[in-house]
Amino acid sequence: MDRVYGYLVDEVQITGGEPLTNPKYLFALIQELKALGINKIGISTNGYMLTEDVVEKLRDLNISYIDGTRAKATKEFWML
Known about the structure:
Number of helices: 3
Number of domains: 1
Shape: globular
Strand content: 15-25%
Distance between the termini: 37 Å
Helix content: 25-40%
Structural class: alpha/beta
């Protein structure tokens, strides 16, 4: 089954509820998806749980995008 990912599945968008409710699980999931060869990974979030630490970790994991609502839409926040 691992061979299917990366060939037939090349993009995953993680939605929810709120994916950042359990950030440790989210980070592990992203790492597992990357290990399967999926490189385009995004998350949909309301933004309330996005902290500087979480944003840094998501950057380190090299996710492709964050699809957020305007819940935390300040210029300073999104420039992190």
